[in-house]
Amino acid sequence: GTTLLLELDDLAGMEISYKPGDHLGVFACNKTELVDGILARIEQTMDFDTPVELQTQKQSHTPNGIIKTWVPHDRFTPNSLRMLLTRFLDITTPPSPNLLRYFSSIATNPKEKAQLNLLAT
Fold first, then answer.
1. Where are the beta strands (DSSP E) in 10-110?
2. Do residues 5 and 54 share a domain?
3. Coiled-coil segments, which residues (predicted)?
């Protein structure tokens, strides 16, 4: 990983209680331009500022076969899509080949499908 140096000015004026060895979490936001660009590509009529719940699909193996259920994500509380893209989701790391193949499988535009397949290889 990469180590970044973050210098904070005038901690005494902020009334923060800390001791040597304490840790500080810094959560950077994604750029507004990137978030807005993603939202502009979504072809759904929805309010991007209305809370949504992220869910993951869980699979259970039973004697009758595999049962798939959707459950709330255990790390993300309901939030707007704009807030999730801005503060919680990594939108700057290139997608994995598996994700590109999945996007290709659901793409409806033949040109985009071909481009996604090419990127996945």
1. 51-52, 55-62, 65-72, 79-80
2. yes
3. none
